[in-house]
Design brief:
328 residues; single chain; two-stranded parallel ribbon; alpha/beta
Length: 328
């Protein structure tokens, strides 16, 4: 009887993986990459607190990644193209990639854009519009916010601009009126800067739920880009377009592997576990705890390669236990 239960559990686990990742093995599929800050040299990463260097990448590594994508035949696409693909089924290039960057740092202009132009790649910028946003204050002296003139210049250079809210808040803790103000005011600021519509939004901190999606739609956005793990495919909803965070410590082989379905499936397991603490503790308490952990001796655990090892080890333990039970 125990063996039968173990076999049933194993089949359930396999079926759950297949269902959760079936679109990762289909075509067409488009990875949407998510970047944040850039630095000139690896030594500069030491200036960032805790593992915030995870969200900061060196000029050299970003250059290598763009060269890799170009050599592998990837074509960079726009937010508009991705939206038309998920909303209306308009085809994307067979090997397409969406390159996005959140927050709105001056290093995007100084480091990111010249490398993009060097390799003939496009990217889309989601900007936090208030220079007084806490995210900018946290890294004062390391990087700075984009001004309205900066955003106008990026748009004039041919890059898309989307909203990342006004103040980069924990949206799930705000009232509906406060969320609406974040979305409407940031949209207006960007449209004033660029003279063009701003139909796309990305979620600060990935604190997102159905209520926020509804308010985004009511505020005039056509699509929302999250940091939920996955690639864009024909079944992707317009108001939850997933992206893959590119960690600053990725080697080039790790970067390449993280575009593949198996690695994405593993990251989904990790992401599912990481979603629990904010809902249990609340976003503010969770972020405070996260900050303490990132600045503790445990910080070495919180990079993707090690989280994957932990996740795979846990899966291996479950499978070993099932094998033991089946052998009895």
């Amino acid at each position: 009887m125990m063996a039968a239960y173990a076999l049933a559990l194993l089949l359930i686990l396999v079926a759950a993986y297949v269902v959760a990742n079936r679109h990762e093995y289909s075509t067409p599929r488009c990875p949407a990459l998510l970047y944040h800050r850039f630095v000139n040299h690896a030594g500069d990463l030491k200036r960032y607190p805790g593992t915030e260097s995870i969200f900061t990448i060196t000029r050299e590594r970003f250059d290598q990644q763009m060269a890799f994508l170009k050599a592998e035949g990837y074509q960079s696409v726009t937010l508009q193209q991705v939206y038309e693909f998920v909303a209306a089924g308009k085809p994307l290039p067979l090997r397409s990639v969406l390159i996005t960057v959140d927050d709105g740092w001056t290093s995007n202009i100084e480091i990111m854009i010249p490398i993009l132009q060097k390799h003939g790649m496009r990217a889309s910028f989601f900007v936090t519009t208030s220079p007084d946003a806490w995210i900018y204050g946290k890294f004062r002296g390391l990087d700075g916010p984009l001004s309205k003139a900066d955003v106008a210049g990026i748009h004039a250079a041919g890059f898309e601009i989307g909203s990342h809210s006004v103040t980069h808040p924990y949206l799930i803790e705000l009232s509906e009126s406060a969320i609406r103000a974040e979305f409407v005011d940031s949209k207006r600021w960007i449209e004033e800067a660029t003279g063009a519509p701003c139909p796309f939004l990305s979620i600060p901190g990935n604190f997102y739920d159905a209520r926020i999606a509804r308010i985004a739609r009511e505020s005039g956005y056509f699509a929302v880009f999250t940091a939920n793990v996955g690639t864009v495919n024909a079944a992707t909803p317009s108001f939850d377009i997933p992206r893959l965070i590119v960690e600053g410590n990725f080697t080039l082989p790790e970067f390449a592997r993280n575009l593949r379905p198996l690695a994405i499936g593993t990251r989904k397991i990790i992401a599912a576990v990481k979603k629990w603490p904010p809902h249990v503790l609340g976003a503010t308490r969770y972020m405070a705890l996260r900050e303490r952990l990132f600045n503790s001796p445990l910080r070495w655990l919180f990079i993707m390669r090690r989280l994957k090892v932990i996740a795979l080890a846990l899966v291996a333990l479950v499978l070993a236990a099932l094998a033991f039970l089946l052998s009895r």
